[in-house]
Amino acid sequence: MRAPLIVIEGLDRTGKSTQTAKLCHRLNGFLVKFPNRETPIGKLLNQYLTDASNPMPLEVAHLLFSANRWEMVKNIEDLLSKGTPVVMDRYVYSGVAYSMAKGLDIEWCLAPDKGLPKPDVTIFLKANDLDSISQREGFGEERYEVASLQTSVRNNFEILRSRYDEWKVIIIDGKDIDQVHEHIWELVCPLTRGVTTGLNRF
Ligand code: NYM
Ligand code: MG
């Protein structure tokens, strides 16, 4: 028996931070946010995301986002095997969806993440109304927070959703924080008794 690996994905400003924190608290789990800006590679990524003049090539940024996940693998596997649920705020799918939106090929994007642990469930917080997202506080502060790019990222998430069967979608339009949380809980609850199968891999 091991604990479940749960991923919450979505565009910028769709409430992932709020929802992953709430879920983690209820599960008594461990929260992992990607990018993890505290690690050596995460610091480079933070610099890239917050400084629009940083000239890093797209491919390099993509590989750093992937490396940032590999930095955490040992940690995550240890937690799961000891029975602590792990909740992730973004994961492989954000890596692929954002890099594809900038023109990189899907298979190329997936390659460096090959071998990472696969989530038991991926919950996509989907906003049908993108205008309301771009009006949320803070939108536009970082690289990629541009309406046209978000539309393309959302389409890419749909492509990924059709490829991976652990995906579940929650439409967030018109729902408040607690309603979204309860919906997430319905999806996660069956996993709280523990998972009998080993971890799958990308
Ligand atoms: N992002 C995040 C990527 O482009 N690739 C990745 O692999 C990951 C994990 O980083 N706009 C992008 C999506 C976001 C940005 O994430 C910062 P956040 O969740 O806003 O801190
Ligand atoms: Mg963001």
Tell me what the structure shows:
By secondary structure, the chain is an alpha/beta fold. It has helices at residues 16-27, 40-50, 58-70, 73-81, 92-101, 106-110, 130-134, 147-163, 177-188, and strands spanning 5-10, 30-33, 86-89, 121-126, 167-171. The chain has a single domain (5-189), classed as Rossmann fold (3-Layer(aba) Sandwich). It has a 5-stranded parallel sheet, with helices on both faces. Helix 1 (16-27) crosses helix 9, helix 2 (40-50) runs antiparallel to helix 3 (58-70) and helix 3 packs antiparallel against helix 5. It is globular, with a radius of gyration of 16 Å. The site of 3'-deoxy-3'-aminothymidine monophosphate has 11 residues, from helix 5. 3'-deoxy-3'-aminothymidine monophosphate binds at residues 12, 34-35, 49, 65, 90, 94-95, 98, 142, 144.
Comma- or semicolon-separated keywords:
binds 3'-deoxy-3'-aminothymidine monophosphate; 12% strand; 202 residues; Rossmann fold; binds magnesium ion; alpha/beta; 9 helices; five-stranded parallel sheet
